[in-house]
## 1
Amino acid sequence: MNDETSGRGAPNAHGIIEERAVDRRRFLTQLGGAAALGASFLTFGGAAGAMARRAPRPIYMLSLGDSIMWGQGLAEPQKYRNLVQQYIRANNPERRDVVQLSYAHSGASLGYFPFGASGRSSKALRMLRARVAARNGPPGRVGEQVDINDPVGAGDWPDDSAGAKIDREIASNTAQRPFPQPSPEERYGGEIPRANPILWRQMDMAVADLQTRRINPADVDFVLLDGGANDVDFTMSILNVDWTPSWVEFQTRETIRQRMEGFLPWALKTFPNAKFVVTGYYVGVSAQTSVPELLATVAEVAPLYAALGIVLAVPAMIARPNYYPDTMARAVAFEKASSEALRSAVAKSGGRAIFVSPDFQPEHAYAAPQTLMFRYQERDPAATGREAECHRIYGAKTAAGTTGAGANFDSPEGICRKAATFHPNPAGARRYADRIIAALPAFMPTLVTAPKATTTAPPQRVVPAVERRTTP
């Protein structure tokens, strides 16, 4: 290599090699170009890396369940699943977006046959009572000989072996399920009480929807789940005088336990990396419930019982000295048994699911001073849209020829219009959300961080980052 190409000059008088001026400028120019190129590479590469860090994939959240999960009667911002979604969005370490796909629907059940896998409704139980009584006494004494509330005496379990076998067989194969294809009912809004889509169908719908969106079910991070109230009928379990508290507890625990223990393992398998929060139910009637208002509600819903084969002699019923205490006892039995059943299923999840109770207190019961439920005569936030949808579907009119707004309760449209009764109101939904939010940081520490408490004096109460809205 000569001096020209090396950028060096000849040795001077002192034997030191001097750089030529022109070559020095060339060298600095080349060095600057290389630096600029490197800076550009680092700039664009760093920006791309920063963008990747700022925009990781969203957190995928599913909600499956019945009218409580759907948020019957509530505006969308008031529903507890949406409040939980907002909280996770604001409190995950990477500030990832949270995409919620909800398939919950009013009226949905865990099993394929409401009121027990054997298909027994209150009407069927009444018929059973008549058959048992016919074997044991004169027809005029129907129902007085053997109490069907005694499962041993009546020989009737909530889910008989044949019905349970059907549930197991069709649960294991999507193609064998009763509702493998979309039904017209699935096009009804979630406010419309319908048994379909049941939770198994909701799970199938979720998988199909995820595939359409090119989302792997294994990427689902979090599932909110409830179910069971419609399998045993929450309202009738509380108000039906034909059912003793012991029967309510028995059929609720056994039916929901069997069905959730059948469903949850398949849901865990379908979404293999998701954490599940299974929410419970509440005591609907307590010692703080307004007795006159409760009895007025019972009188209003009597036609519904008649449509199902149960004739409620309301005046004679409410005259019973034990009616109110028995109603409270049935309400307590339902909450106790449903919670036990759901906890039993969760305990077998290998730590991937937790049970969260809304923990309604006596003052939160129906028609209580601080009730967390919609009253029968109350107009809920979703009433206007639901009434229009009810009338569109059922097209019923009253005898006076009015529109659906005046439909009788004993018509399908009337039942539909009053669907929010006994469901959590906006404050009740916030109660659910707060209970779930309190459990999330410990249950999903990689996805949710707890808000930091302030250290300034006086100490401040930690408020979850959930949007609070004043009830209209």
## 2
Amino acid sequence: MIRIEFQHFEGCPNSPQMLDNVKRAIIGLENQIIFNVILVEKDEDAKEYHFRGSPTLLINNEDYEGLLAPEEPKLACRIYPMGLPSPKDIRDKILKHLAIDE
């Protein structure tokens, strides 16, 4: 099983689109993944979840872009330099993880 975790906070402008991209990426993979959406509401939550900014996608506890957990996590928006990952890009990365785990 692959563990997918989507972390975000309310009000982040990129969160709704990224969440939609993730949901589209996992269609048909539901029996091979565990999917959780984590709402990070305060700095204490950010520390608990090693929050990298909103939105963050973790696949088996690894950041989608390989970003390490910050020393001082806090509520902040996250910028994806190449734009938000598409559903296809997310799915491809998940499938690579599935192939590794088999």
